Amino acid sequence: MGDNDLSFVVVVDDRSTNRNILCRLATSLEAGTEAVSFDSPVAALAAMRFRCPDLIITDFNMPEMDGAQFVERCRRELEDSEVPIIVITAYEDRDFRYRALEAGATDFLLSPIDHREFRTRSNNLLTIGRQRRIIRQRAASLERELDDALRRQAEVLRRGEATLRRLLDSIPALILTTNASGRCLMVNGYRNLLASGPDSQAGTVEGMFGADYRRRHAPLDRRVLETGQTLPAFEEALPDSFGRMRFFMTTKTPLFSEGGRIDAVVTVSVDVSDRKGSEDRMLLQTGLDPVCGLPNRLIALDRLSQAMVRAREGGGGVAVLFVDLDGLKKVYEQVGPAIGDRVVVAAASRVAGCVDPSDTVARLSGDAFLVLLPLRDDHPGPAVEGIITALRAPFPVDDGSFTLKVAVGIAEFPKDGSSPEELVSQAHAAMRRAKASGPAGACVFTAEMTGDPYGRAELEALLRRALERGEFRVLYQPIADVRDGRITGMEALLRWHSRELGVLAPERFLPVAEETGLSLAIGRWVLEEACRQSVRWGREAGRLIGVTVNLSSRQVLDPGFPALVEGILTSSGLAPAALELEMPERLLLGDSGHVLDVLDRLHRLGVRLAIDDFGTGYASIMCLRRFPFDRLKIDGSFVSAATESIDGGALVATMLGVARGLDLQTVCEGVETSAQLDFLRVHGCQSYQGYLLGQPMEAEDCLPLITACCPNGTSPAEA
Fold first, then answer.
1. Percentage of the chain with pLDDT > 90?
2. Which of the listed residues 266, 337, 364, 700 has the most CB atoms within 10 Å of its CB?
3. How much of the chain is helix, strand and coil, in % rounded to 5?
4. Domain encompassing residue 375
C-alpha cells in the first residue's frame, strides 16, 4: 500500500491510449488510488524497486520483453514477490496466457477491456492484497512478540538455572548426576570441599573422585539403571580436601526422561560427620569404657540379664565376680593419668586372659571389674585363682612398677539373687568381706552379709501374705511440662510396708515376685489403683491427669495383659490416652516378636507406651525403631552429667535429637537443679521429673501440686 494506506497501481503498456484508459480505470477503483504508467517494462521494473505497487496491470505484447518475462522478473526482483499482476491479452492468445500463468500472473483481462469486469477483478485483488498485507504484518508482529517472549523466557530460564546452581552449591551435600557410561552430567559445588581425583576436569566420576570411588559406585549405578529403583541409604567415608575423612549417608535415584526412559543416576551424599560423632560419643558412653575398651556397667548388666535368661532355660547358673583393685587411685596420684590408664589397660588384659573369650569382662568403675561366668557342674574357683594370681603380679611402668591389692567377691545365680542389680550388689558385699580379710583373697556371698535375716523362701512367704494383708502402697511422683512447670501426669511408684521388714523399695522384693509369678497379681493391683486415682484427680482438678505405671517382664510377656488393661480402663472410667505404660528396654531383648505383638495390641487400645531408662541398655536405638513407643525417658544419671561436662551435655542433647527425629516425646528423670532444667528447656525436652519438682508422695498430697500453676517450671515452694 502507499502512504496513508491508499492503493498504488502501476500500468505497463507500450501504447499511450491503452495506458491512459487503464490509468483512468485504476484511479476510479477507490478514492485516493494513485496510478502510474510506464511504456517500457524495463523502466517499470527500475521504478518498482524503489516503490512496490499494490497492483500491476500489464500488456502481454510489448517490446524489450513480453508479459510472461515481465511477470517472471517482477516475482524475482520486487520487494513484494506476491504483488497481484493482471495480464491483458486477446482471446486467441491462449498459449500466451499459459506462459504468463506459469511465470506467476495472478489474473487475466481480455482486450478490449470490459470496464465493469476490470473494476471487479481489480478491487478483489486489491482487497486480497490488503488482507494479505495485514496478515503478513500481524504475523511479523507476532513473530517479534514471540521473539521477545522467547528472549524473556530464555532470560528467566538462565536466571532460574543460575539460582538453581547457587541453591545446589549451597546445599551441604554432594549432588552428582551420571549417565550409564560413568560420565558426570552435573555436580554441585560441594565437590570442591572433597579430595579431587587424578583429573578433576575430565568430566568422569573416576577423574573427579578417583578409581576407588568409581569401583564402589559403578555396580550400584548399574543396579539403579537396570531396576529403575531407588537404593536404600548407605553410609560411606570420603576424604575432604584437607585429607580428613568425612562420613556421608548416600542415596541413589534413577532420573527418568519425559518418555519414561532411565537417562541417568542421581547420587546424593549428605554429610553426617557431626551427627555420627555425637552418636559415636553416645555409644561410647553407653557401651564401652573409654580407657580400656571393655564393656561398661550398663552393658554388663544387660549381658548378665541375658545370661540369666539362658541359665533359666538351660538349667545352669551364672557366677558374678566383683574384682576390686586397691591402690589404683594412688597410681594415678603419683604418676598421673596417662600411666594410670596404662595400668588399667594392663589389668583389663590380665583379667580377660584368665577367662574364655566368650565370657564377659567389664569395667564397673575406676578400680573395679566385673566378670560373668556360666556355671554348669563346675565352680568358678579356678578362674578366681587365676585372676588373683594375674593381678597380684607387679605392673611395670617406665623405670619402676606398682603392686596392687586384689579382692574378689562371688555371687551366683539363682541362689544369691534374681535380678542383675541384686547379683552385682551381693558380689560387691562379698568383695568387701574379702577385702577385710586380707590383701589378696576371695569370698563367696552369704545372706548374712546384707544384714537381712530373711532368706529367699521367707521373703516369698512374706510377699504372699502382703497381698492378703494389703501391705502395698502406691506413691506418686509428679511429671511437669518443662516450659511452664504445669503438672501433666504422675508416675505410680510401688512400696511395700511390711510388718516384719519395714518399708521396702521395689528393687528389694520385685525380683523375687518376678521369679515366683507374684508380680502379675501385684502389677494388676498397682494398675487398678493408679487408674482409679487418676480418675479422682481429673474429677477434682477439672482436667485430664495422666498416670504412668511401670510394667514387669511377666506382664509384658503375658498374652492376656492387653485384655486386662482394657478391662481396667473400662471399670475405672479412665480414658486410654491418660494411661502410660512404661518398661525398661532390657525387657525387649528376649522374645521380641511376642513383646511386639503385646505392645501393638496395647497401642491399638489408645494407651501410651514409654521406654524407661533410655541409654542404659544395649538395645536403645533398635527398640525406638521397632516398637510403637510414644515417649522415652532419659535416665537421671545422664541428666546429672549434662551440666557437669561438655560430653555429658552433648550426650543428652544427642538423645533428645534422636527422639525428635523419631517423633517421640521425652521426659528426663532425676532433675535436681535449676541449671539442669534450663539445659533441658534449651535443648527441647518436653517433660521432666525429679526432686526439683517433688519427691514421691501420697495420693492425697498430689492435688495441691496438680492444681497449682507454677511459672517457669518452678516447684510450688519456689513459686
1. 23
2. 364
3. 50, 25, 25
4. 287-448
